[in-house]
Amino acid sequence: MEKSLFEQMGGTYTQVGDYLLPNLTLPEDEQKSIGIWGQRHARYLKKHHKVLYMNLMTSGKLNSYLAEIDERAEDMFSRLVKEMAVRRGVTEQLKAADQMAWVGKMNAIRNSAMEIINNEIIFTK
Which of helix, strand or coil describes residue 22? Predict the structure, then answer.
């Protein structure tokens, strides 16, 4: 019996009942930690772009893709918060003088930055 193309390329089969199933494994991918931004993007892809999600997952590129998205989003978030705080005059002097006002302004800045990142990075393809 002639070998299949899969066997010629070094593939093997496992017999399950009357069927021969190919032994398929995903390529080893360096596991990077994925933060909140990457997890949000993964949920978005899984729900709204299933084909892209499955293609990334089956090619073994999902983890590195999500880690890159997470890193970009985190960098952008830090930069936006700093820039907005400077523009709105939220300083250490305000923090020392009126902590509640400082907390309120910083929360508003963080929420604005999160919304920008969600629109530009997380909830896009």
Answer: strand
